[in-house]
Write a structure and sequence with these properties.
Shape: globular
Bound molecules: glyceraldehyde-3-phosphate
Strand order of the largest sheet: 1-2-3-4-5-6-7-8
Number of strands: 8
Largest sheet: 8 strands, parallel, barrel
Distance between the termini: 18 Å
Order of helices and strands: EHEHEHEHHEHHEHEHEH
Length: 241
Amino acid sequence: MRKKVLAGNWKMFKTQAESEMFLKGFLPTLEETPEAREIILCVPFTDLNVLSRNLHGSRVQLGAQNVHWAENGAYTGEISGEMLTEIGVRYVIIGHSERRQFFGETDETVNLRLRAAQKYGLTPILCVGETKQQRDAGEAEALISMQLKKDLVDVDQSNLIIAYEPIWAIGTGDTCETKEANYIIGMIRNQLTNQNVPIQYGGSVKPNNIDEIMAQPEIDGVLVGGASLEADSFARIVNYQ
Ligand SMILES: O=C[C@H](O)COP(=O)(O)O
């Protein structure tokens, strides 16, 4: 049985004070959440310490949104695997479309970051997905296949999560049709050597569509942006039916 993994990606939102407020509302809602569900919060670097302290003893795991491939060095603005694990980070998002679009991330740097994350004992959440233009041109499957082929060179598939995030569905309220997301995720799984890799869907996941998304047989979880910022809505998502 593949693990169900429900992750929030706070992107560049929330001060430390706001993070503490969120946890006060969110943590008590987990009392009846089935144990088998892995719950992760991937937060800005400045919030990691606050969460690390407040999540101690809770079932929520801590995630970051980037990691550099070098052990240390003159890489202004970057962060190392050791710096993350030292404060209790277990997961890291790599290759998010916003990193690829705005910060020059390529499949080659994604691959370097994936391997570095694993070397330092982190579990990477690799994001792949197509633009609207690529989808309309019928290129989605080929594009995703190519991303996987390049990104996963020498990556250990026993310590990996993949998130399928169609770029046109991110932050737009325009969710990918659930059967279509299920189909693409099945296609991604066919390309993997390890059939136990959890594969998430991401893109406008909300309290009102989570039950339908999680009912799809290939979808093992979700990577949630906007709806993970409010305690109530993220609580409804992790407590899906
Ligand atoms: O990492 C999360 C995704 O980019 C989805 O964001 P969203 O839920 O705000 O559409």
